[in-house]
Specification:
This protein is of the alpha+beta class and 276 residues long. The protein is built from 9 helices and 11 strands. The strands form 3 sheets. A 5-stranded mixed β-sheet has the order 5-4-6-3-7, sandwiched between helices. It has a 3-stranded antiparallel β-sheet with strand order 1-8-2. The longest helix is centred in the last third of the chain and has 16 residues, at 192-207.
Length: 276
C-alpha cells in the first residue's frame, strides 16, 4: 500500500511494440514500448507510467523523470518448451524463438547449431508457438512469467555465467513528469540497491551508445559495500562475445561503468555494435 488516501485509476495504453509483430530492428528499436506512455505523461493524460525498465531508453524527455524502481524481480532468462530441463535437452538444429539480438548472440555462442527464429508477441503468443510445433523452445524473461504467476511454465533457468540479462531486466521503472506533486509520494516505492544496480547497467548501455535492443548484456548487483557489474557485447550470430566484469565501491559507480565500457571497447565493442 503506497498511500491510504490515494485514488488510483488504471489506464491501459497500447504501444507501437504491442500493436505489431514486426521485428524490433525494423521498428527502429528504441522507444517502441515506451513512447506512447511518455506522450501520455507529457500531455497530462496520465500521471504515472509503469515501464519494464529494460525497454525504457537511457535518454528521456527533459520534463520527465524516473521517480522510482521498486525491488527487482529475478533477472534471468528461461528456456520454455515441452520437457526442457536444460539447454542441452534441445536436439541438434532445434528451433528457438526470440526477438532479442542479445539472447540470439549468447545462445548461438553456446549452441551454434540452433536455428534462431525471430518471434514477437505477448507471452501467451510466444509460448503457444511451442505448443503448435512452430518452435522447439522460446526464450523469455523469468520476471515476466513470475509476475503473471506462471512459474510452472519455466522450463530451465539460463545461468547468469552463460547468458547475461538485458540492462534493467527484471526491474520496473516508475516515470512521472518532473514537476508532479505526487512524485515524492511515489518515490517511497524506490528500492535503493535495485536503483544503484540498474543505473549502472543503463549507464553502460548509454556509454556504449547502444540502444535498448542492441546485443548488450549487463548485470549489476550489490555485494556488501561494493557494486559488481558484468557486461557483454555480442555478434548477433554468436561468432564473438566480448565480456568484462569489475567491482568497486558504490561511490565510484560512474567510474566503474566507464572503465568497463573502455575494456569492452578495447576488445572491439564498437565494431560489433555496428554489425547489429
Amino acid at each position: 500500500m503506497l498511500h491510504d488516501g490515494l485514488d488510483v485509476e488504471i489506464s491501459t495504453i497500447r504501444t507501437t511494440g504491442d500493436a505489431t509483430t514486426s521485428s524490433l530492428r525494423s521498428l527502429g528499436g528504441t522507444g517502441v514500448f515506451t513512447k506512447a506512455l511518455e506522450c501520455a505523461l507529457l500531455d497530462e493524460h496520465i500521471d504515472l507510467a509503469v515501464h519494464s525498465l529494460k525497454d525504457l531508453p537511457t535518454q528521456m524527455h527533459s520534463d520527465l523523470a524516473l521517480v522510482a524502481t521498486p525491488e527487482r524481480e529475478d533477472v534471468r532468462d528461461t528456456l520454455v518448451g515441452p520437457s526442457i530441463s536444460s539447454l542441452a535437452d534441445l536436439p541438434d538444429g532445434a528451433r528457438v524463438g526470440t526477438g532479442s539480438l542479445r539472447r540470439r548472440a549468447q545462445l548461438k555462442a553456446l549452441r551454434p547449431d540452433l536455428n534462431i527464429i525471430d518471434i514477437r508477441g505477448n507471452l501467451d503468443t510466444r509460448i503457444d508457438k511451442t505448443m503448435r510445433g512452430e518452435c522447439d523452445a522460446v526464450v523469455l524473461a523469468v520476471a515476466g512469467l513470475n509476475r503473471l504467476g506462471w512459474q510452472e511454465r519455466i522450463g530451465c533457468y539460463l545461468p547468469l555465467n552463460q547468458v547475461l540479462p538485458a540492462p534493467g531486466q527484471g526491474a520496473l521503472g516508475l516515470q512521472m513528469r518532473g514537476d508532479h506533486p505526487a512524485s515524492t509520494t511515489v518515490a517511497a516505492l524506490n528500492h535503493a540497491p535495485t536503483l544503484v544496480a540498474v543505473q549502472a547497467e543503463r549507464h553502460l548501455l548509454h556509454t556504449l551508445r547502444a540502444g535498448c535492443h542492441a546485443p548488450v548484456g549487463a548485470w549489476g548487483r550489490i555485494e556488501g559495500d561494493l557494486l559488481a557489474l558484468d557486461g557483454l557485447v555480442g555478434h548477433p550470430e554468436g561468432t564473438q562475445l566480448l565480456r568484462a566484469k569489475l567491482r568497486a565501491p558504490r561511490a565510484r559507480a560512474e567510474s566503474l561503468v566507464e572503465s568497463l565500457a573502455d575494456d569492452l571497447r578495447a576488445q572491439g565493442a564498437d565494431d560489433l555494435l555496428q554489425v547489429s
